Amino acid sequence: MPLLSLNTWPVMSRDTKRQLIHQLTNTTVETLNMIPDKIRVMIHEQKPENFGKAGAMASDPTFSSDSRITNWQTRTSYATDATPVVGMAILTIDVWDTFDQETKDAWVNKLTEVLSLFTHAPGDKILILIREMPPGNWAQNGVTGIHEEFLTKSRRIECSTFIKL
Asked: Which tens digit of pLDDT belongs to each residue from 146-159?
């Protein structure tokens, strides 16, 4: 709570990923006043040809301008130069529905800065999706988030509730 799942191009070293995971966690802790051990980050690397925007494939040499087309008929684009886009980021966040809009706005603003720094993606190539759910739909270690002892019970290392087959 929350789970941050990043889809991006493989541009980061192991150390850079470590730093990114730390920074995403730190930003979430500071912005949401969240407990660090409940924040999970997953990085999924994809080839550029598996990304697209505005009908253009990210591996195409004209992706920078083609991905910024705002009108199919006139081919109007807001691209200002032909600089290749060297990164894209799609961050999907599953989180409890307990935060107000002002907090979420501040959080995604900070997360966008972090993602741009680590993935080298321009702002228009960073998409953040927040999927909210009630705490009762989130479970860890056999206990849902609505349980009054969720933090304690979810941290048990040994679980006595597992069914032996």
From this structure: 999 888 888 888 75
